[in-house]
Amino acid sequence: MLSTRNVNKAFGSLIVASDITLEVPRGARHALIGPNGAGKTTLINLITGMLEPDSGAIVVGGEDVTSLKPEARVRRGLARTFQINALFPRLTALESVALAVLEREGRAHNWWRALPAFGPAIDEAHAILASLHIPAQKETRELAYGQQRLLEIALALATRPRILLLDEPAAGVPKDESQQLFTAIAGLSGELTVLFIEHDMDVVFRFASRIHVMVGGRILVEGTPAEIARDERVREVYLGRSHRAAA
Amino acid sequence: MRWHPLEAAFWLATLLPFVLAPSYLSLASQIAITALFALSLDLILGYAGLVSLGHAAYFGVGAYAAGLLSKYLFGEPLTGLAVSGLAAGGVGYLSSHVIVRFRHLALIMLTLGFGLLLFEAANSASALTGGADGLQGVAISPLLGFKFDLYGRTAYAYSLAVLFLCFLVCRRLIHSPLGLALRGIRENALRMPAIGAPSLAHLRMAYTVAAVMAGVAGALLTQTTSTVSLEVLSFGRSADVLVILILGGAGRLYGGILGAILYMVARDQLSDMNPQYWYFWIGLLLVAVVMFLPNGILGGASALYPKRQ
Predict the structure, then answer these.
(1) Which of B145, B152, B194, B303 has the most CB atoms lying inside 10 A of its own CB?
(2) Number of compact structural domains in chain B
């Protein structure tokens, strides 16, 4: 469903993505892990088109989207959330999600009909917000931080993605409160293909069917959680310290 | 969207000059035209967040289009108004392809440069525009049988009606999906592509609508005064309308109208007292408003009332 083929990217002499090839089949839940600065968010930016690769290809559902703009990739079913909230502070949650729905339907350019005329889109936005327990009428900036993280996901879902890229969905949320987030993520449709970045290894091992480990802009190794847990190289560069600390 | 009683009261009050100040109807007409111009700027500045220092370009295109139409083709004002609006919209649409790609300082410089360019183009094309002497021979026919009288009765009725109609269009626009998308762009332009939004196309559309309205305002000025001077394209006009909108409060539809009333009445009164230095007072007012009421006078006033919801 989602694959990258030999993707390379450098900023001057700094190589941030080196020959990245990965494959996420339809409906799979894959995790992308690695130490800070490994290039995980950069890879998401390359996949979504916010960065342009120097070489290589991004393929969505069999279609090469490498030359498409980010918004065109969204319309092909590729949605993402942001590690640092990228929301609309002075729009209500409902307005934000309704906007995403209207964009998906290609009706956001309409300037001659008032919003209440778009009942189905607004109902859909209400339904998405209700499913994630986000108060619809509050302005985004007045929402609790955890709810803003959920709104990130709601915005992505409103685009009706086939592939969802979650960039540290629980970033900044206290561990005891992140449960609600991961319950929401666990409840996503089985049809949806998910690639997520996460630092909490409990979460990664619970949700991911496969794990890609990135180090220094490269995919070091890829495998099932059990394989990754056993892998010596992974222990060394990434898990080593925390495992030793836990021991 | 339901009308607030204050809105109804406001629009009823715009009829008062006919009764209370019949000798000021020409001024009232100028105010309505300026208000329309400020309203058009509000669409792109207040809602989409695009700062422009060259908005007079579209006002000027509309003003010259209306003047040239009446001189060479026909003097019927309503058709002239529509054609002039479309001419300004055409220029707006073409220029939007470049302008909406930029932000911040680059955008300000670009709109400023575009405005200066049109000003000097009109200045040097004096065979067509009359250059610095202004366009001579503007001849406007009566409006639906009403002559444009010296007292400005027809002029004010006409300008006010057009302002109101354009206001209805703006009000509809800001409550439409496009209006929501513009607010989205203003709130977080970087997020918009991630929800699949073609932001540039949205901005081009809003910019074009704003240019049409600015052009209509310019055409109204030509038709109600039967003259076109080079001043319609001037930097001063672009700066004035920005000041008016900031004073009144951007992003709230009525801000530009309120700003136009204050600014034009103040100019009328202050320039009688002290014709050379009246900008001093405008400057003082601007500094005070920006320091103490960052959302303009209307923003300050609305903060006094509890929020709707």
Answers:
(1) B194
(2) 1
Residue B16 lies in a domain: no
Q: In terms of Cα–Cα distance, which of B24, B67, B55, B51 is closest to B212?
A: B55
CB contact under 8 A, B193 and A79: no
CATH number at A2-86+160-246: 3.40.50.300
List, for residues A11-65, the tens digit of each pLDDT value: 998 999 999 999 999 999 999 998 888 899 999 999 999 999 999 999 999 899 9
Convert the pLDDT of each residue in B1-45 to its tens digit.
Answer: 788 898 999 999 888 888 888 888 999 999 999 999 999 999 999
Domain positions in chain A are 2-86+160-246
Burial letters for B140-173: b for 16+ Cβ neighbours within 10 Å, e otherwise? bbebeeeebeeebbbbbbbbbebbeebbebbbbb
Q: Which residues of chain B have a CB within 8 Å of the CB of A71?
A: 192-193, 196-199
User: Quick one: which H or E segment has residue A81?
Assistant: none
Give the number of other CB atoms < 10 A from CB of residue B118. 20
Q: What is the CATH number for B260?
A: 1.10.3470
| pTM for the whole structure | 0.89
ipTM for the predicted complex comes to 0.88
Does residue B13 lie in a domain region?
no
The residue segments making up the domain with residue B171 are 21-303
Q: Which residues of A touch B185 (CB under 8 A)?
A: none
Q: Give pLDDT tens digits for B242-301.
A: 999 999 999 889 999 999 999 999 888 887 777 677 788 888 888 998 888 888 888 888
Q: Taking CB atoms and an 8 Å limit, are A74 and B175 in contact across chains?
A: no
